[in-house]
Amino acid sequence: NTLVVAALGFQQTAQFSLQDNRLVLTSGKGSDPLKGSVWFTDSTVDQDAMTDINSHLADLDTDLDAYTHGGPVQYTTAIDVPAKKWFESEAWLVDELVRPEGNPWGARTRITGMDFYPDGKSLATCTWDGDVWKVEGIDTLGQPDGSLRWHRIATGLFQPLGIIVDKERLLVTCRDQIVSLGDNNGDGEMDDYRCLNSDHQVTEHFHEFAMGLQRDGEGNLYYAKSARHALKAVVPHHGTLLRVAADGSKTDIIATGFRAANGVCLNDDGSFIVTDQEGHWNPKNRINWVRPGGFYGNMYGYHDVTDSSDEAMQQPLCWITNAFDRSPAELLWCDSDRWGPFKGTLLNLSYGYGKIFVVPHEELDGQMQGGMCELPVPQFPTGLMRGRFNPHDGQLYACGMVAWGSAQRQAGGIYRIRYTGKPAHLPLSLKATPRRMTIALSDPVDATSASDPKNYRIKVWALKRSANYGSKHYDEHELTIKSVSVSKDGRTVELLVPDVAPTWGMEVRYALKGANGKSASGVIHNTIHK
């Protein structure tokens, strides 16, 4: 077969070259507009016919110019839906941003990312099926007549899993590229789909998702690329954390050895936090505190590590047993004054169970360790994927969907989680020292109940990392709690546990009374390295 290619009208300004089995047309630099056409077909087409068609370009100046400014609105129907209160307790209020499920296009709204516009009244969200929606009216949430307006503003994207509002444009992580969306004619829809970076290495394998999108102070972008399922990597991006230059000019591999890191959390010191999922070379789910150049254990990922021992990988902040969180998603830092004692706390979202966790942790000799404790709200009906604090109302917004393994069944959802300031009795820090475990709580507890060892239970277990899928628990047993001391302010309890030692997994249960006399209970799952 012969491919016939012509660049009619560009003959004096451009030339063809063959580069790595690709035919590349390169034009010289200049400020004058270039007009022409590129045709390609097989050798059976009459080339004179192509020349005749090209001759009409001289009459199309106006039409060609019109194509550079955006066409008419495609989605003229904006969909109004009510906002509704979803859950209420003393400490937590949850509002649901109802989705436009009955839209005229039959478009599913499996929500995979969101970010806020500067006005604080609207947000942009992307869906697994390739759409971007603008949601207006979020400033009316919680009001009796609050309502939302959904406007479909872009479509046709390849499995987007992260989005950022970038001034007047939107940046979206797709499976094949990071696309920059713009509205050239001001009609509210995106008509300029510009590829910012297409270094994404996509094969036919289903598992290699491109997860999340975050940006640092210099404008660099970050996302995680999943490895193949139960198969060795075939391209360098499989199982990696990636950084894309602010101008999209290059992509750097930051760390390796991941299986399915669902999103990225940036830290002020230049490190990162990503979760990963149970599987081959991954005995359980985990939270990884990632530093550039680190290897995080998946031998099937793309890397040059040949030593499969546990000592050759960077150890996670914690291993997460399946019963506690089947599939962890993206983490984020609470930076809101409206969340009181939780400001500065690390939070984790659960795709597998539709939950939100606090992540108390510590650093010992450069190794992060800690665990998770669930917020006392009902399980969300969809898997939670991404979260952001709204800088205007100071509350947490979380969105998600179900498209692969999850215990939840609702196709998608967006929620606002509000902290009321009332006692929540959640752990803010967790420290392991010789013979002791120390827990600092968000609110004071009753000294009598908190000082009784019978109100606590601790058990530990080991795991085995191998090429097999996951791991069972080994040597699971309880530890004896000899005594408990309570700080004067009632916010810190210190458990005397003579046999405390490094362990893959630990469960700490507490069933106390708060200083207000109400129940204050919780379950922590954590890891101790040192």
Radius of gyration: 27 Å
Quaternary state reads single chain
| Integer average pLDDT | 94
Structural class by sheet pairing and helices: mainly beta
Strand order of the largest sheet: 7-8-9-10-5-6-30-29-28
Q: Uncertain segments of ≥5 residues (pLDDT<50)? A: none
Distance between the termini: 65 Å
Strand content: 35-45%
Q: Helix count?
A: 3
Quick one: overall form? globular
Question: Tell me about the biggest sheet?
Answer: 9 strands, antiparallel
Number of DSSP-assigned strands = 38
Q: Percent of residues in helical segments? A: under 10%
Overview in brief:
The protein has 530 residues and is mainly β.
General description of the model:
With 530 residues, the chain is mainly beta. The chain contains three helices and 38 strands. Strands 7-8-9-10-5-6-30-29-28 form a nine-stranded antiparallel beta sheet, with no helix packed on it. Strands 23, 24, 25, 26, 27, 33, 34, 37 and 38 form a nine-stranded antiparallel beta sheet that branches. The N and C termini lie far apart (65 Å).
